[in-house]
């Protein structure tokens, strides 16, 4: 097939569950490509020699290579190639912001002058991973000879799982210590079922277990055992404890009943399955009118979850305009289709409550956009005298998270930024404490799955070097 013929193939669109139906269930929204669609979409790839798309992949997946295998109909080979560098392809295929990463560099999108016309690398990655899972066509690679070295990984989010996958493949013994009773980090307790089915996270974890990774749950490091105690038992330690400390608005009324951090709201809904109450014993008060404050993926997840938990109205309250929203375009679109209302250029100044302490309204002030701030986005500027009241009975605050402070507090030799992030050498992931590496949101602040995984790969390679050669 020549370039002209490839460019003439229409971009494939994944079938989706209809909005009116999906707000009443937790099932996933896009169904994924059919095999016929996947082959057509893969044939759109020009197989560029320069592989520009790989520049946008923090874990260096051989993108043209696996797409070629799909175009040939050899789906197991496509998955095996992806798995060489990515331990979580079914996850990345669903939640990575590909439009800002690999797909941004896609030549097809550039030639057609439309980034939405880029080859759907994420959709194809998801297809290959799902094919492997559904057809059990996934082989466990032959283990490397045992090195006799032992690594401890603290936290089982995407950063920790990546380190575990890479190190077990290199012949080390790996034990993952996780504070919660389930693995996956934000993939399990934060991102809702309708965006990332938990069956998929469990499957990826089971694959690591099959390869020999040991998981220890309910293990809060920094309380149960210190990093020094881990160092006495293990040859190297990786900290991937994420950014689970929610930020608040610091406005009057924030302690009212019916105000949640997005973390609590989503953890109750996802990890503790409040959506299945009373069959599952986790209550979650989600009122008739829920306002979610924020404009990122977390806010979209909370606003969409509120509808599925029975809210009649779910409102996003955001202090800038849609152009500055950090959420993925796809998430904003899905939220809109489902009926989430967007109140833009408004900022909460007070939460009002009734005499029993329950939220009854959100007082908002209108904003306008000024000059760009340090984030590069236009700064919201308050319009004096523009305050007004919005009647709501639940408020979910989704304005950001900071790194979990427990381990840095318990281990003062590990240097941190003023805002709490662990300081590492970006080329190796090494912290200021010998034998200890860190990566993911504990270093970056709240970031993305693929950046956490990229950190994990860098750290694993350096940990291997240290354990085998003794290089620090
Ligand atoms: C609701 C929500 C939606 C998101 N949506 C997207 C998205 O669509 N796309 C995207 O790319 N990113 C998204 N993100 C961000 C992404 O999930 C994170 O950047 C990523 O999970 C960070 O990975 P991590 O491994 O560093 O940390 P986490 O995933 O936070 O995992 C850290 C793990 O460490 C455990 N832990 C913490 N402290 C300890 C301790 N002391 N001892 C032992 N274990 C500990 C935690 O319980 C947790 O399991 C979203 C985040 C949230 C909250």
Give me the secondary-structure topology.
Blueprint: H1 3-8, H2 19-22, H3 35-43, H4 63-71, H5 75-83, H6 89-95, H7 107-111, H8 121-135, E1 150-154, H9 158-169, E2 173-177, H10 186-189, H11 198-210, E3 214-216, H12 227-233, E4 236-239, E5 245-246, E6 259-261, H13 262-269, E7 289-293, H14 297-308, E8 313-318, H15 329-337, E9 341-344, E10 346-353, E11 359-372, E12 378-382, E13 388-391, E14 394-397, E15 401-402, H16 406-410, E16 436-438, H17 441-444, H18 449-469
Parallel strand pairs: 1-2, 1-4, 2-3, 4-16, 6-14, 7-8, 7-14, 8-9
Antiparallel strand pairs: 5-15, 10-11, 11-12, 11-13
Helix pairs in contact: 3-4, 3-8, 4-5, 4-8, 5-8, 6-8, 9-18, 13-14
Bound molecules: flavin-adenine dinucleotide.
Characterization of the model:
The relative contact order is 0.12. Helix 15 links the parallel strand 8 and strand 9. This protein has three domains: 133 residues, Fumarate Reductase Iron-sulfur Protein, Chain B, domain 2, CATH 1.10.1060.10; 163 residues, 3-Layer(bba) Sandwich (FAD/NAD(P)-binding domain), CATH 3.50.50.60; 152 residues, 3-Layer(bba) Sandwich (FAD/NAD(P)-binding domain), CATH 3.50.50. Strands 3-2-1-4-16 form a five-stranded parallel beta sheet, with helices on both faces. A five-stranded parallel beta sheet has the order 6-14-7-8-9. Strands 10, 11, 12 and 13 form a four-stranded antiparallel beta sheet that branches. The longest helix is centred in the last third of the chain and has 21 residues. The protein is globular and about 65 Å long. With 472 residues, it is α/β, with parallel strands linked by helices. The site of flavin-adenine dinucleotide has 41 residues, from helix 9, helix 14, helix 16, helix 17 and helix 18.
């Amino acid at each position: 097939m020549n370039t002209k013929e490839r460019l003439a193939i229409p971009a494939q669109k994944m079938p989706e569950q209809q909005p009116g139906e999906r707000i009443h269930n937790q099932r996933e929204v896009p169904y994924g490509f059919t095999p016929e669609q996947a082959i057509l979409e893969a044939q759109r790839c020009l197989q560029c020699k320069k592989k520009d798309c790989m520049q946008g992949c923090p874990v260096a997946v051989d993108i043209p290579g696996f797409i070629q295998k799909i175009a040939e109909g050899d789906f197991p080979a496509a998955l095996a190639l992806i798995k060489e560098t990515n331990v979580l392809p079914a996850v990345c295929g669903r939640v990575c912001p590909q439009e800002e990463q690999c797909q941004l560099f896609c030549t097809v999108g550039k030639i057609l002058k439309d980034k939405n016309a880029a080859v759907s690398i994420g959709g194809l990655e998801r297809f290959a991973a799902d094919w492997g899972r559904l057809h059990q066509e996934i082989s466990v690679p032959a283990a490397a000879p045992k090195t006799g070295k032992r690594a401890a990984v603290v936290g089982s989010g995407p950063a920790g799982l990546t380190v575990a996958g890479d190190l077990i493949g290199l012949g080390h013994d790996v034990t993952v210590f996780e504070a919660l009773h389930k693995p996956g980090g934000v993939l399990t307790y934060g991102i809702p079922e309708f965006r990332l089915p938990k069956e998929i996270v469990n499957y990826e974890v089971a694959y690591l277990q099959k390869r020999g990774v040991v998981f220890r749950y309910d293990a809060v490091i920094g309380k149960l055992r210190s990093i020094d105690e881990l160092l006495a038992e293990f040859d190297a330690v990786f900290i991937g404890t994420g950014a689970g400390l929610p930020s608040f608005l610091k406005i009057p009324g924030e302690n009212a009943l019916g105000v949640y951090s997005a973390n609590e709201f989503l953890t109750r809904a996802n990890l503790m399955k409040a959506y299945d109450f009373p069959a599952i014993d986790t209550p979650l008060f989600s009122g008739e009118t829920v306002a979610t404050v924020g404009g990122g993926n977390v806010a979209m997840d909370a606003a969409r979850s509120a509808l599925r938990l029975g809210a009649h109205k779910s409102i996003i309250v955001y202090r800038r305009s849609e152009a500055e929203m950090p959420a993925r375009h796809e998430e904003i679109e899905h939220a809109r289709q489902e009926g989430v209302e967007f109140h833009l250029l408004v900022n909460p100044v007070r939460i009002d409550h009734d005499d029993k302490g329950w939220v009854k309204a959100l007082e908002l002030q209108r904003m306008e956009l000024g000059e760009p701030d340090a984030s590069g986005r236009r700064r919201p500027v308050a319009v004096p005298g523009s305050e007004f009241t919005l009647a709501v009975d639940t408020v979910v605050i989704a304005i950001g998270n900071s790194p979990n402070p427990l381990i840095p507090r318990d281990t003062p030799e590990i240097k941190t930024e003023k805002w709490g992030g662990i300081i590492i050498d970006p080329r190796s992931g090494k912290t200021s404490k010998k034998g200890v590496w860190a990566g993911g949101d504990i270093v970056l602040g709240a970031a993305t799955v693929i950046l956490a995984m990229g950190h994990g790969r860098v750290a694993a390679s350096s940990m291997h070097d240290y354990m085998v050669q003794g290089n620090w």
